[in-house]
Amino acid sequence: MRQPEIRTITEQQWRTLRSETFNTILMILEGVERLVDDKYKVTGVVVPETLLGSALLSHAVEEYGKLLYLKSLSVNNGNVDVEYNYGKFKDHNYKIKQAIDNLPSGCTLVKQGVFDPKVFSKSSFDTGTEVDWQTRLDIFNTDLDNNGNVKKYPSVDFDTLKNATIEFRKEVNKTTP
Prior knowledge:
globular, mainly alpha, two-stranded antiparallel ribbon
């Protein structure tokens, strides 16, 4: 595994980066909120707005994880060291995990499952759909399963997505950049 590239930035650059990351989260959320407008609601049908909203919400969650990482850094002699390439700043899974670990589950769940994901396997039981890196990839990228069949889109529920968006915005608004 490669060692992370450390980028040293000034304290002002760090503050600007945090602020712009926060603004990016809000901008993405604005887009998701437009997509989960009730005029697009179709019961029992996966509509493009619902899938796109879920993928965008996963990106906003990842950016929130980046914001949490940036906030964890400290200033040393007027500079801040950022783990950049091959480090936390660019690691999608790290950032999403940071966010999910620090958010109430209502902020990241886009479909309620029948079975508890803490007890049952995601591959064998309907444990719901959480916004994460794999969900985003499964929405934006057509893929094949092991039998050569086209993979289905992740299961997303309009009302659950809308609720996650509302709850996530509440959490973001509690955060200072």
